[in-house]
Amino acid sequence: MSISWRLKHSLATRYQIYTVTEFQKRIVKKTGVRISIANLCKYVNGTPKLIRLETIEILCTALECGLDEFLRVLPKKMDPEKKRKLSYKNTPSSKIAVKAFPEPEDYKGS
After folding, report:
1. 63 and 69 in contact (C-beta within 8 Å)?
2. CA–CA gap between residue 65 and residue 82 (Å, rounded)
3. Which residue ranges in the chain fall short of pLDDT 70?
4. Can you tell me the distance from the alpha carbon of 78 to that of 99, in angstroms, rounded to the nearest whole number?
5. Residue 4: CB partners within 8 Å, gap ≥ 6?
6. Measured distance CA(43)–CA(5) in Å, rounded
């Protein structure tokens, strides 16, 4: 897997935090924000499918660390021969905001 989410490991080894309630108390103490126990369980016990940048900022602030302390993203080995659909290809032309990338000359000052 190209995503390594090690929040639980980091909490235990670096901060000696072994329960989600301890983690929640630290977050509240350091940031004043209360993240629900249910959400913290998802973040601690597995790799989240989706996490807001604001939440990541809260976690990093509470732990006084950078994101690389508990998340590592490596390039994924992909087969270039395998055709994949991208979501923008399914978008009707009328809904696409920019049809072509503008040329730098178009931005010269007036």
Report:
1. yes
2. 39
3. 1, 83-102, 108-110
4. 28
5. 71, 72, 73, 74
6. 9
The pTM for the full model equals 0.68
Residue type, 107: Y
Single-letter residue type at 51: I
Give pLDDT, residue 87. 63
Q: DSSP secondary structure string, the chain?
A: --EEE-HHHHHHHHH---SHHHHHHHHHHHHS----HHHHHHHHHS--S---HHHHHHHHHHHTS-GGGTEEE-PPP--TTS----GGGGS-GGG-S-SSPPPGGGG---
Task: Give the Cα separation of 93 and 20 in Å (integer).
Answer: 47
Residue with tokens 């509240």: 28
What's the confidence (pLDDT) of residue 80?
75
* Amino acid at site 29: K
Query: What is the C-alpha to C-alpha distance for residues 26 and 36, in angstroms, rounded to an integer?
Result: 13
Whole-number pLDDT of residue 85: 63
